[in-house]
Amino acid sequence: MRLGAYTVVRQEGGQLHRIVRFSNADFWAEVRHLIKGDLNKNDVTSRIIVPNTQTDSLVMPAASNEFPSVASSVASFRRWMPDRVLFTPAALEEPWGQQILARVQRLNLPVEELPRNRLTGLRGETERETYDIAKRTLAVVTAPASQFKLSPIPPSADWQFHLAEGCPAHCQYCYLAGSLQGPPVIRVYANLPQILANLGNYDQSSVPTSFEVSCYTDPLGIEHLTGSLAECIRYFGTREQGYLRWVSKFDAVDGLVDLPHNGHTRCRVSVNAAPISQRMEGGTASVAGRLQALRRLALPREQGGGNYPIGLVIAPIMPIEDWEDHYEQLFDQISEALDFNCDLTFELISHRFTPGSKEVLQSWYPHSKLEMDEEKRIIKRNKFGGIKYVYDTNTMKQLRQFLSSRFGTDFR
Ligand code: SF4
Hints:
By secondary structure, the chain is of the alpha/beta class. It folds into 2 domains: 2-73, no CATH class; 84-407, pyruvate-formate lyase- activating enzyme, CATH 3.80.30. The protein is built from 14 helices and 20 strands. The chain has helices at 25-36, 41-48, 68-73, 89-93, 95-106, 127-134, 192-199, 223-226, 228-237, 274-280, 287-298, 323-337, 355-364, 393-407, and strands at residues 2-4, 7-12, 15-22, 55-59, 84-87, 111-113, 137-141, 151-153, 157-160, 164-165, 170-171, 186-189, 209-212, 242-248, 265-271, 281-282, 310-317, 344-350, 377-381, 387-391. Strands 8-9-13-14-15-17-18 form a 7-stranded mixed beta sheet. A 5-stranded mixed beta sheet has the order 6-5-7-12-10. A 4-stranded antiparallel beta sheet has the order 1-2-3-4. Helix 12 (323-337) packs parallel to helix 14.
């Protein structure tokens, strides 16, 4: 057995059994204690693998059959590392762009400086190939002028703003499909200080004003590469009436816990019933990992937490086979993770799609089992004449009755 910083390599009879890497120092202490003691299979499955871990990655090579419940209960998860990082010349002139450059260099990621302030050469022969190339590419650019004119986003928040566009995960129902132009490359903004300074034009000093920063990206999924979410949280911690909210399907919150947020940031995670999260949310942290991250963010400071207001987004809700049982289990999982008093909100959103998002998603995920049958849906129109396909009235009524009673809130 060899112990190293945040790494356990355990051998029995010369055979490698597991490598577990933890991102949480407290949990690491507990693991060390376990290993010094009499570690047996039951300890491993019940104490390391239950959703109390802040697991950064878990690899089950060689003898993984020996611990089948371990392999099946926690998905392998690693922070996203792009194959290439592109910088435009304008991005490199920004101090925040230089800060991102230093981060990606520390991570030994291959950096390329583009000759012009345009992203080109990211298309493959097919849409799926383009998707593959784009989702492995981080581009550091400056936000265009249009990003300084904010749009309202009711009912989630008063305004939305963006620190990036695109997301490294692979959700087969992705909300971004059809919303963003061009290949789904992950573009992050190097002129963050200007973006934040502009928010002062929208937050009124007399009434609380809320800002959502996750409409076009998962800000936590790229935080290790940018540091931009932490900077936003610090900024809102200084505002009198400005409030930030973000949502994520990732779980690496170490860098956020100790920030001076002053109660002005609500951290949310998006979760779903197990069959949906396990089959349709590629590249994300497990639901157990997300809930433990949320727990840590919400716990009081004296218990090692961040004392943040928090929230859960249950989305996209789907009436899959045995859906009541699966959502009941999710509810139990949430209750277990958040078994203390905290400032918690819920948002429940049923699945919907548009003709445009369906076309894009089918090109990205041609083998997906996601149901998008117009015949089984009804049309809902927005005030601009756009249409989306939602569940029929009867299905919505059943979902609403069950979920509203469990989660204590209505949904859309
Ligand atoms: S986490 Fe959100 S933005 Fe990212 S792929 Fe999934 S649905 Fe899309």
